[in-house]
Specification:
single chain, two-stranded antiparallel ribbon
Length: 276
């Protein structure tokens, strides 16, 4: 039996509404599935990153702790076994060796503690106005006691920074410069558009293009000369924590240039806000 036109129209309208609701429901479910998949992929990537970090940490502990401990133990045993029979110069060499390896262990422990704090978001900064030239000279007094790095830092330039963390940045960059570069070495700094721009340059071979992609990542191995593999990563994380940055570029005609940008204090002495 034929239905009146009004009933047909109402039926079709109801059907269209059902289709629209079903389409909207399917669309929402598809969006939720995509969001869930994206969350799962992010979680899987984070798990992979943590596993990779754990693996590198185990490798670092196995190599970078065992080697200096073995050296310290060997030197200490030699001093004990041959006490009174060694020449003063021989004793001094052994003691200097123990001191160097102990310094290496302290540097490793500091790096790993910073790694843990940064991973957990527990790193706190005590921001102050710091005279940059003074900070550079103090950092070089420990990183470069022989005075191999020339200093060209604009007098009176002040930065808004945590003094202890600023020292870490400068010491790590100076140590990296001396460890991997070649003379002449130089650190320079000047004010640029509200930033204090600090550059460490050398005339060494520079960083090959294939190694630049992970240059500021943790546990990156250098050339097997005792580097812990955390120095440049710590520089990056501390610079970013201050609202700044660090970058690498080849120096011309030969060498490497590491540039760190930190918020400069304003000329009136008020604090410049960190930029991101």
């Amino acid at each position: 039996m034929a239905h009146p036109p009004g009933e047909v129209v109402a039926h079709l309208g109801g059907l269209a509404l059902c289709v629209a609701v079903a389409t909207d429901l399917v669309g929402r479910q598809a969006e939720e599935l995509r969001a869930a998949r994206a969350r799962a992929e992010r979680h899987a990537a984070e798990v992979e990153r943590v596993d990779r970090l754990r693996s590198r940490l185990i490798s670092t502990l196995a190599h970078d702790v065992r080697a200096p401990l073995a050296s310290v133990q060997g030197s200490a045993r030699t001093l004990l076994r041959l006490r009174g029979r060694l020449e003063p110069a021989e004793e001094e060499d052994l003691l200097h060796g123990i001191d160097r390896q102990a310094t290496r262990l302290v540097r490793l422990a500091t790096g790993l503690l910073d790694l843990a704090r940064l991973e957990e978001g527990r790193l706190e900064l005590d921001l102050r106005e710091v005279e940059l030239r003074t900070a550079v000279l103090e950092a070089l007094s420990s990183a470069d006691p022989e005075g191999r790095i020339g200093v060209d830092v604009e007098p009176g330039l002040r930065v808004l920074a945590d003094p202890e963390r600023l020292d870490q940045i400068l010491v790590n960059l100076a140590s990296n410069c001396l460890r991997h570069g070649a003379p002449p070495y130089r650190v320079s700094a000047a004010r640029e558009d509200g930033w204090a721009v600090v550059s460490f340059t050398d005339a060494g071979p520079g960083v090959p293009p294939e190694r630049r992609v992970d240059l500021f990542e943790p546990f990156r191995r250098g050339d097997g000369n005792g580097s812990v593999g955390l120095g440049l990563w710590i520089v990056r994380m501390l610079a970013e924590a201050h609202g700044g940055s660090v970058s690498y570029e080849p120096d011309r005609p030969r060498g490497a240039r590491f540039v760190v940008r930190l918020p400069a204090s304003t000329a009136s002495g008020t604090r410049a806000a960190p930029r991101r």
